[in-house]
Amino acid sequence: MPNNDSERIRLDHVAIAVTNLDEALAFYQKQFNLPLIDIEVVQEQGVRVAKLDLGNTHIELLEPLSPETPVGKFIAQRGPGLHHICTSVNNICQELQNLKDAGTRLIDETPKIGAGGAQIAFVHPKATGGVLLELSQLANTEHK
Ligand code: CO
Questions:
Q1: Domains defined along the chain, listed by start
Q2: pTM for the full model?
Q3: What is the CA(86)–ligand 1 centre distance, in A?
Q4: 98 CA from centroid of ligand 1 (Å)
Q5: What is the 29 CA–ligand 1 centroid distance (Å)?
Q6: pLDDT at position 5 over 90
Q7: What pLDDT sits at residue 143?
Q8: How many A from CA of 84 to the centre of ligand 1?
Q9: Per-residue pLDDT reduced to its tens digit, 109-120
Q10: Is it the case that residue 47 has pLDDT exceeding 60?
């Protein structure tokens, strides 16, 4: 949750597509001693997600549930690697409307439910300099 009301947007997490979650997790935990927050299966996104604490942000390791999922297809085409970055926003509907008004190419025109019950929507990499961008409004966050 934003700890400052003026923080309209901040880095929530960096997500890395991996083929083997346990191996990737062992690396980040052993080498950097990053605390594991949780491991969650998000059926809607077709991934198993390990969330690691990185101070004021997170690393998410994404393991596809099958090759037919979006992350499975991503790995098949480009190999493992940076999948998306996520910025948390206070009012995702308003941010999406602003982007739509500006003619920005979106993957999701309306929010869907992601890990931890957050409302999320993706902005197309063609609009962002080549990186898939996730907007996220945390669960139980009030609209302003
Ligand atoms: Co994400």
A1: 11-137 (3.10.180.10)
A2: 0.86
A3: 6
A4: 21
A5: 19
A6: no
A7: 52
A8: 7
A9: 999 987 778 999
A10: yes
Among residues 88, 80, 126, which one has the least CA distance to residue 107?
A: 126
Q: How far is the CA of 116 from the centre of ligand 1 (A)?
A: 11
pLDDT tens digit string along 6-45?
567 899 999 999 999 999 999 999 999 999 999 999 888 8
The answer to whether residues 12 and 57 touch, using CB atoms and an 8 Å cutoff, is yes
* Ion ligand 1 neighbours, Cβ < 5 Å: 15, 86, 134
